[in-house]
Design a protein that fits this description.
The chain has 146 residues and is mostly helical. The protein is 54% helix and 3% strand. The longest helix has 37 residues. Bound molecules: zinc ion (ZN).
């Protein structure tokens, strides 16, 4: 219903990315393996540890200028907010990067043909005849490169 909101939505795991969710199970497994996509635990361990390292660096950099004179409770709130924010930003970065790889894999498998899934919004177009996505209007035909 809200096609403009689709491309910027950030699912919690790789498996929930619309392009992946609408694939048949066997194809989905292959696509995830080809994109070297982490499962939910590895994904969030990765995002969390990157977020923690980023938070430690930010606290270290800003210690003398910003944090030193803060009361303990305020310091803890700053640390918690930084940790949550940096972890989410790492998640955004990871999802976007792996989603790009998954889209490239779907496009490569459909050269000179229509993709079964809209590469812009993830809409399942396998059962429709049109050359454009009914949800967002993106073209479905993949031309060969060069
Ligand atoms: Zn679309």
């Amino acid at each position: 219903m809200l096609p403009s909101a689709m491309p910027i939505s950030i699912p919690p795991t790789i498996e929930k990315i619309p392009e992946i969710a609408s694939l048949p199970p066997s194809t989905r497994t292959d696509m995830l393996a080809d994109a070297n996509a982490p499962g939910p635990w590895r994904l969030w361990l990765y995002n969390g540890s990157r977020g923690l390292i980023t938070t430690v660096i930010l606290i270290w950099l800003g210690h003398d200028a910003v944090y030193r004179d803060l009361p303990v409770i305020a310091s803890m709130l700053v640390i918690a907010t930084l940790l949550a924010t940096t972890t989410f930003l790492w998640h955004f970065w990871t999802i976007t990067r792996i989603r790009g790889r998954i889209r490239a894999g779907i496009a490569a498998a459909a050269v000179n043909d229509r993709t079964p899934i809209c590469l812009r919004c993830g809409y399942d177009c396998a059962t429709i005849e049109a050359d454009a996505c009914p949800e967002c209007g993106a073209g479905l035909f993949v031309s060969p490169r060069g």
